[in-house]
Structures are given as structure tokens and as C-alpha cells.
Amino acid sequence: MKQKFIPLFLVVFIFFGFHFQSNPGRDIVPSRTKQDIWVDSVLTQMSLNEKVGQLMWVRAYSNKGSAHENKVAQLIQKYDIGGLTFFQGTPEKQAELTNRFQKMSKIPLIISMDAEWGLGMRLKKSTISFPNALTLGAIQDNRLIYKMGTEIARQLKRMGVHVNFAPVADVNNNANNPVINYRSFGEDRYNVAAKSYQYMQALQDHGVLACAKHFPGHGDTDVDSHYDLPVITHNRQRLDSIELFPFQILMEQDVASIMVGHLHIPALDSTPNFPMTLSRKIVTDLVQNEMNYDGLIITDGLGMKGVTKHYGSGEVEAMALAAGNDICLLPQDVGDAFEKIKAYIITGKIDQNAIDRSVKKVLRHKYQLGLTHTQKIENKNIRRDLNTPDALAVKRELFQNALTIVRAKDGLIPLSNLDKYSMASLALGTLEDNVFQTYLQKYRTMPTWNLDKRITDYTRKQLLKDIRNYQRVIISLHNMNQSPSDNFGLTEDMIQTVNELAKQTEVILVIMGNPYALKHFDE
Question: No. of H helices and E strands in the chain?
Fold first, then answer.
């Protein structure tokens, strides 16, 4: 299969001018011999329980109070778990808990986060959110993606986070995708591969492990695997050319880990209702043997309905390890998982040597990350250190370079001769003053209208009467969302108002939301 991908990779390499730098592991491993000595010495002293524990990464929140915190502490002490995945909270509290949990762990924990668009994805009110991937997909200069990844890596390291579950390497070739959509760099496999590479390399060049997800490709689904098991019916040739393409490139460029998604793909494993996460044909035969990948293989969250709908607690985790995964991410019940996994080992469904191989992978990454000893996070000024002027400048630069003129008839954009035409501004979806209309006034004084998402026939007719004589009307759409099922936050009233006005005068439409909403405004 690698031979199939080599010509395509060369095209990507030449076209995008990839920026090659070394792996974080290659930078920070002083000597492979020293690494192997440490890994082997730790492994030989571990019990079976301790080995299994290293393959479990459990949930942690910094906003759920002492009962939750104590539960996480008990899991660390009882099961010697190998890692934590932090979700919502604040930077200060997360740093405090990370220090607490690391101090009680026999072997320091790997700390991971979903930070696809930065810490703001989880620490929403107190840290920076960079543009989502679909916005970044419009950027022409891929060096800016590397710049963003560098800044995200800096912030993650400041928080004591070692693994970012990013980039999303899914090719979003289904506009109605309810779970990937705006999290993908788009529909073009070359663009997805190029930008995923730059993001991955930036993270790993700066000491944070990247994780390409959701293997083998979650882009062409109309089902959210958090709630059910999506089915992808494409044949192997199509999968090789589209879905697998970015993952193959990232694997060849030493992405530290991949995340296997909860998907059913009959062309790869025809077992009914069987998620790829639990399939040995996928995880071992395809990923490890055919694609020759030896990095860390992580399941998607094992509490998601895409995997729990047909298999019970404990069974899911045991089957995941039997398939060849190295890490059980967010197990439903750690106690159930331990009992079932040990039963699988006793009955030969899981090879003890396979457990040892996975534990060695984990320990090697811990060595490379400096986790041979406890690391302490300095909490003082942590919020200031995360929200720097430089970080905000990167965010602004990304948005500036993502702005796209989709269509400009007769050279209308950029606007010139502002005094030559009568102009007006209409904001739909908000009744409040907004930055966009305020800034328009800096260029040209013009009357403004604001309408909510619900617009009565009377209000629409009155608006059209009042505004029809202006030669150019700038309409901006506000308070949109990312949900295809909710029409991206647009109402039929908004769509009708735009299209009716466009029949009467020259309209410049500014969409401040998901670009798939453009389908409503082809005129």
C-alpha cells in the first residue's frame, strides 16, 4: 500500500513546499541506549496491573469539584493509570490538579487535551481560540499553520500538556457531516494533508506530541459517532485515494500518534455493526503491518455510542487492546476494563507480549517527554503567560489571511469611489450594535438596519421599501453556528430577506460563519 501513496506524496511535497524539521523525540532523546535502559528497567519491575494501567487515559475536569478530583486521584492510586485527558475548567485549577495528580503517580502521567483550535476549545472563557480548521483551510500560506501550531505548543507546554489530539486529518467530503465539518481543513485531500502536516510538525518540533485523527477518515459521514456508529460504504480504492491519503503522509512523516475512529467500513472489515476501533484487521493488519506505522495508536473515546451501542463496559476496552491499540482513551469503567482485559490475557485473546510492546511504546514517549521524573507547573501568572499579545497577533493574522472573496462581479471588490454610490448596511441575526457596522462607518457614513433571525412579512416588506433605493447594500449575517441540521444558524426569514433584496439592488453579502451556508445565496 505504501507504493500506492508514494507518487501522491511527491506531488504534495512539491506543491506545498513542506517545512521539514526533526521530531520532538529526536531532539530530546539524549541517547537511544539510555532510553532503552530506562524503559527496560521500568518494565521489568511492573506487575500486570501496572502494565495495564499504563494503557488507560482517563477523564479529568478542573471545574467539577472535590468529588470528581478525589475519584481521579483514586483511579491513579488504585490502577496506576498512564495518563489523563483534561476537559473544561480554568488554567489555574488545571495546573493545580496536574501538579497534584503527577505527585501521586508512580510513573509521571502523560497529560493530553483536545486542543484542535487551541486551549480555548476546552478552557473556553480564559484562553485563546484560534480559527477552526475549515477557516484555516482557506489560507494560502501554509507557513501560517506552522506558526499557529508553534504558539499552541507553547501554551500547551506552559500548562503541562504533552499530547494534543490534533490535527484532524479527515477530508470533509460531506457538507452535512454533523461532527467533523468545520473541524476539517476541507474537501481537498492535498490541502488537508499539507495543513495537517504543518500543524503536526509545529507541535512536535516544539515538544508536544501530535495525534492524527480520526483514522481511517471520518469526513464522509452524516452520523455523529458520539451518538451512533457511522457507516462508510466506499470501496478500498476510493479509501486509499481520499480518506487514507492524509494519514499515510503524516505516518510517513513520523506523526507521534493516531486516533482510530468509531466507524464501520465494510470494505475494510465486513463484520456487522463492528467499529474499526475494535477491529484487528484495521489496527494491526492495516495500520501496523500494511501502512508500517509504529507510533502510538489511541482509540477515540470509549464511552461514545459509536462503540458502546453493541459492546458493553470492559468488553470494549479488552477488544480495543486485542485489536492492537496501545491506549484505551476514556474507558467507561476502569475497574470493569481491568477485569476483562486480564481475563482476555488469561484466555489468550490478548497476547502478553502485545501488552509489553504497548507499554514500551508508552514508556518511550514518557522518556522522550522528560517524564522520568515529576514535572511541576508554575501557577503564578499562568493566565497572563497564555494570553500574550503575540498569541493574539497570530490569531489576527490567521483570520486576516483566511478572509475570502467568493465572488466579485465586475470587479466590485474591493470597493472604490465610495462617495459615488448611495450605500446602506443591514445586519441580520442581531439587534445589537456590532463591530462590523461600526467599522463600516469609519470608511463611509451610511444608514444601518438591524433585524433579528425571525422577520415578519410586514417587517420584510417595510425594509425592502426603505432600503431598495440604495445602490449598494452591505448585508452581514451574524450569530451563525456550525450545525448543518440547524442550517448553520440561518432562518428561512434571513435567507428570503437577502435573496429578495438582491433582486432589487446590488448586494454585498458578508457571511460570518460556516462557508457551507453559501449554498443558499448562489445569486
Answer: 21, 12
Q: pLDDT under 70 in the chain at which residues?
A: 1-32
| C-alpha distances in Å from residue 363, one per residue of 30, 107, 345, 399 | 15, 9, 21, 39
CA distance 219 to 342: 35
Contact 218, 261 (CB under 8 A): yes
Each residue of 301-341: pLDDT tens digit? 999 988 888 888 899 999 999 999 999 999 999 999 999 99
Report the SS3 class of residue 333.
coil
Interior/surface letters 127-150, b for 16+ CB within 10 angstroms, e for the rest: bbbbbbbbbbbbbeebebbbbbbb
pLDDT at 16: 47
* Grid cell in block for residue 465: 421599501
Instruction: Give pLDDT, residue 27.
Output: 53
Q: What is the pLDDT of residues 15-34, one digit of tens each?
A: 444 444 445 444 554 546 79
The continuous run of DSSP H or E covering 449 comes out as strand 448-451
What is residue 51's DSSP assignment?
H
Contact 350, 318 (CB under 8 A): yes
Phi-psi region of 372 (alpha: psi -120 to 50; beta: other; left: phi over 0): alpha
Q: For position 139, what pLDDT does the model report?
A: 98
Contact 216, 239 (CB under 8 A): yes
Give the whole-angstrom CA distance, residue 369 versus residue 29.
9
CB atoms within 10 A of CB 254: 18
Q: What is the pLDDT of residue 429?
A: 97
Burial class (CB in 10 A: 0-12, 13-18, 19+), 387: middle
The 3-state secondary structure of 453-518 reads CCCCHHHHHHHHHHHCCCCEEEEEECCCCCCHHHHHHCCHHHHHHHHHHHCCCEEEEEECCCHHHH
C-alpha cell recorded at residue 494: 434571513
Question: Which phi-psi region, left, alpha or beta, contains residue 84 (left: φ > 0; alpha: ψ -120 to 50)?
Answer: beta
Integer angstrom CA distances of residue 438 from 241, 427, 446, 494 = 47, 11, 10, 21
384 φ/ψ angles, rounded to the nearest 5 degrees:
-65, -40
Query: How does pLDDT run across 52-88, given as a tens digit for each residue?
Result: 999 999 999 999 999 999 999 999 999 999 999 999 9
Determine the 3-state secondary structure of 60 from DSSP: strand
Query: Are residues 305 and 228 in contact, defined by beta-carbon separation less than 8 angstroms?
Result: yes
Residue with cell 459517532: 225
Q: Is 409:137 a contact under the CB 8 Å cutoff? A: no
pLDDT for position 32: 60
The candidate with the shortest Cα–Cα distance to 203, out of 254, 261, 136, 249, is 254
